[in-house]
Amino acid sequence: MMVRTRKGMTDRHQKIMDFIIRRYDEGFPPSIREIGEEADISSTSVVTYYLKQLTEMGLIERDPKFSRAVRPTHTNSKDLFRIPILGPIAAGLPIPVPDPQAAYIGDEINGVEVARSLLPEREKARELFALKVQGDSMIDAMINDGDIVILKSAIEARNGDMVAVWLPGRDETTLKYFFKEKERYRLQPANPTMQPIFIGKDEPLEIKGKVVMVIRKLETTAA
Q: For the whole model, what pTM was predicted?
């Protein structure tokens, strides 16, 4: 198959461009193979050629050294993408882990939209997820009941990181500041009226994510 070279946009150019914008807005830039499948192109070299033309047109930017390093130079979505809300997280006493087989139903059923520009540049959208806060143990960190926390998937944490923690032995999850001490772990609330949770080194503890952003619940007042 030969690619027709011309200055204007062909239908295939447009199809590829639409797909790139859609996936970028969703927070998952497509790979060359995924673009080929969407545009019905079996050859990755042909896809690369189309991408080269779109780059020359000034419509996309890409780093050929990486599979998913392609982004539109302009979008109509104001750079919004949707982060999935996986369920509730306790900012208080630990709560049971939500049933992973059950869909989480909340105010933001499918997720929450976030402007990419609000996040640190190093954060990759595909590594992010959201949880809805229940409780007030983190109020001194400006996190209130009903807020949404955006987290980056992680399995390790440094002292002082705010993390989502799963306690497998208790089948519970909680949102706290993490501290590793000599003989135990300390899960510290940001509320002076609450005590920390201590976990012995012999008890399993898993870090699930680090908080990178908080979306505050809007308060409504009666007219």
A: 0.59
